[in-house]
Design a protein that fits this description.
This protein is mostly beta strands and about 725 residues long. Helices cover about 10% and strands about 55% of the residues.
Length: about 725
């Protein structure tokens, strides 16, 4: 390739969808060929071309540092996953910042719409509304993480400070500790860089939506040439589309300071503060046991029908996460990382769970929470690389220490006024009583040791081994006024579990851009997993799960498009079960199974076309249960089929369009399969126009066909999803 041809390739890069990933691909293909040409053979006019080329190269490099690499992630953020994603013996799917930005994502739940195999769950009983979900058939409510550290409590997480969202699927207690039967979700925070940039977005929309975000990154040259400060701000307010009276407001700030960037010793100090208030929504009740005695569906009323009480219901949530991370490279093969985290979430809320009173009337029950969740956690990881020739090792050895606390000031609420099914008045006066009854609190300590080893042997083989030992001890105490007997009920329980989990994977690489793997992983669900205990569960051992997965991954189209496929089986071999007919004690004699397969494709199809999409099939079954009404049934809130697709195309140098679709199959509300929630398919659209180099306009329209659907499923109620709505965003860079 001549210098002139190289320059032409680089110039084309500037219109190659204007993404840094595309630019990098074009440059990588062009530069080696040019570098091979001897400098002495260049005439004067070629030297002029080279100078022009160098100028263009500098421009492309700056752009690449300030942007995401498109839809396709090449490496997970966790140090426990040491290999590129194409070589990782596990299904790992990533939603990048570019995907979230183009979709106008305003919540973690919206971001997870890009991942098939996930079903959203409503708040229920002792579980608050928020980011509750099932993954590969099992609850993942307590399996949320920020930068690899557990994220406590139930609330609506906003993605304004996220670089990406990583979903690691299948039992993974060796990676993340207790839970993770279906997998785990890791939120990767934005971090300071040595670039100087500022980005702002101002959004307005239907349903009183307005949203403002600001992302400012500044090198601190007066302090050090390796220091930088980054601050992210967010303000959001909106009514719930298609849901009368329901609204949500939140604001947040996330400053972070980095020292020693691009040196052997790096320090990052960060803090996240988010406040949220609004009117919570528990949707509509089911017809089972009232209108339809043996089974039913969501109450067939208009999805705008709201049974809550404006004068009584509310939620106020404050969340704080403070992190100090230190990394030191002793050499190219030895490094040490320590992360210290403190998290605190307070929640004060009252909600109305609607329940059928009779065939024409809904009873407005009341649920109150006044809680505080705390976590203090420290992770220390030592990474080692050694071995020469045919066998090489990448080893991670780690220690995790954590203390978690939970406190709930309990309150008793009398029911609100009953209301007609078809004409509820959310402004009915609440004349009932709200009585403090006591408190419940828990303290849990975790000590965990883990080791991971990736072994490369031969030219085409890798083995992944992981082992984790956890000591998890919980003390639970509650003191509650029994309003029936007027006595004080005291519960004082403790539970101590010592568990070992492991994972193993064998990978064969038929080519450099592909892999075929077989993997095994285990997980445990302690009785006190959610920091609560009862007389029936305090003495039980943890539930145990195992998963087997066979998969393949291919980096296609010049390694721009990652295509994956996997089949898997997950067995929970000692599930908690109770004889529903006799009220017998809870025992570990149940068995649950999920068989499935998944397909996905993420990345660039051609110079103008990007895509992220996946399909998941889940066949869930309660294989063994003491409750005959559960035997052979499907697990709760598991959609047998789900798929999702988002794609964008660069029609003109300044005009981009996008189209998305999401399908979720029908689900049952509980393990007795009494109520069936219908499936749905939603369509979204986007158009973006680059007005100037520093200003762009983007229009997003959601649920184009205005389909009535139920987005989150609970045991006693189901919450309708958003009706059609639109958002117009102005993006500024300066």
């Amino acid at each position: 390739m001549t210098a002139a041809q190289t320059l032409m390739t680089i110039k084309k890069t500037k219109t190659f969808q204007k993404t840094p990933l595309a630019a990098a691909i074009a440059l990588c293909s062009a530069l080696p060929a040019y570098a091979a040409e001897p400098a002495t053979s260049q005439p004067a006019d070629s030297q002029a071309i080279v100078k022009e080329q160098e100028t263009v190269l500098k421009e492309v490099k700056v752009e690449a540092q300030a942007e995401q690499d498109g839809y396709k992630a090449n490496q997970a953020s966790s140090p426990k996953l040491t290999q590129p994603l194409v070589d990782t013996a596990k299904t790992v799917r990533v939603v990048t910042d570019e995907v979230m930005r183009e979709q106008g994502v305003t919540s973690l739940r919206d971001a997870l719409r890009n991942i098939s195999g996930i079903s959203m769950a409503a708040g229920e009983g002792g579980v608050p509304p928020g980011d509750n979900l099932t993954l590969r058939g099992f609850s993942a409510r307590t399996d949320l993480f920020i930068d690899g550290a557990r994220d406590v409590a139930g609330y609506t997480r906003d993605p304004f400070n996220l670089e990406s969202v990583e979903v690691v699927e299948g039992p993974g207690s060796a990676f993340s500790g207790r839970g993770s039967t279906g997998g785990s979700i890791n939120q990767v925070s934005k971090a300071p860089k040595l670039d100087d940039f500022s980005n702002a977005e101002l959004s307005i929309g239907t349903d009183a939506l307005h949203r403002e975000t600001l992302d400012v990154n500044k090198p601190l040259e007066s302090l050090s040439d390796s220091a930088a400060l980054r601050v992210n701000l967010m303000n959001h307010s909106a009514d719930a589309p298609g849901r009368d009276e329901v609204y949500s407001k939140r604001w947040a700030i996330a400053p972070s300071l980095a020292l020693g960037l691009e040196t052997d010793t790096r320090v990052v100090l960060s803090h996240l503060h988010q406040e949220q208030d609004g009117l919570p929504d528990y949707g509509v009740p089911y017809t089972a046991n009232v209108i339809v005695p043996t089974g039913g569906e969501p109450l067939p009323v208009d999805t705008e029908t709201f049974y809550g009480l404006v004068d009584r219901d509310y939620e106020d949530i404050d969340a704080d996460v403070t992190t100090a991370k230190v990394e030191h490279d002793f050499s190219k093969t030895v490094s040490l990382r320590n992360q210290l985290r403190y998290g605190n979430v307070t929640r004060d809320s009252i909600v109305t769970p609607p329940r059928m009173l009779n065939a024409t009337t809904v009873n407005r029950q009341g649920r109150a929470r006044d809680t505080e969740d705390e976590i203090l956690l420290n992770q220390t990881d030592l990474s080692l690389k050694f071995g020469e020739g045919a066998i090489k090792h990448t080893v991670l050895v780690g220690l995790e220490l954590a203390r978690e606390k939970f406190h709930n000031n309990t309150r008793n609420l009398t029911n609100g006024p009953a209301t007609p099914i078809n004409n509820p008045n959310p402004h009915d006066a609440y004349t009932g009583t709200i009585t403090p009854t006591g408190f419940a609190e828990a303290k849990a300590d975790t000590v965990a040791l883990y080791v991971f080893d990736t072994i490369e042997f031969g030219s085409n083989w890798q083995a992944n081994l992981g082992l984790r030992h956890d000591d998890f001890q919980t003390d639970f105490y509650s003191k509650t006024l029994n309003l029936t007997t007027n006595n004080i009920d005291i519960v004082d329980l403790n539970n101590a579990d010592s568990t070992i989990n492991w994972n193993a994977g064998l990978t064969y690489k038929p080519a450099e851009n592909s892999s075929i793997y077989f993997a095994y992983g285990s997980s445990v669900n302690p009785s006190a997993e959610g920091l609560t205990l009862s007389d029936s569960t305090a003495t039980l051992d943890p539930e145990e799960s195992d998963s087997y997965e066979l998969g393949t991954k291919w980096d296609l189209l010049n390694q721009q498009l990652l295509v994956t496929a996997a089949i898997f089986r997950t067995d929970k071999t000692n599930a908690r079960t109770t004889d529903g007919s006799t009220g017998a004690a809870t025992v570990l004699e149940g068995e649950q199974r999920v068989d499935g397969y998944t397909l996905s494709a993420t990345g660039i199809i051609n110079e103008n076309w990007q895509v992220i999409g996946s399909y998941t099939h889940l066949d869930s079954e309660i294989v063994e249960s003491l409750n005959v009404l559960e035997q052979g049934n499907e697990l709760a809130n598991v959609a047998p089929e789900s798929w999702t697709l988002w794609t964008t195309y660069q029609l003109l140098p300044s005009l981009q369009v996008g189209l998305g679709a999401q399908h979720t199959d029908r689900r049952f509300n509980n393990t007795q399969n009494l109520n069936e929630v219908p499936g749905y398919t939603l369509y979204d659209a986007m158009a973006s126009y680059q007005v100037t180099d520093s200003f762009a306009l983007r229009l997003n329209v959601y649920n184009l066909t205005d389909e009535d659907h139920y987005a989150t499923v609970g045991g006693g109620h189901v919450v309708p999803g958003a009706a059609r709505y639109a958002m117009l965003t102005g993006s500024f860079s300066f």
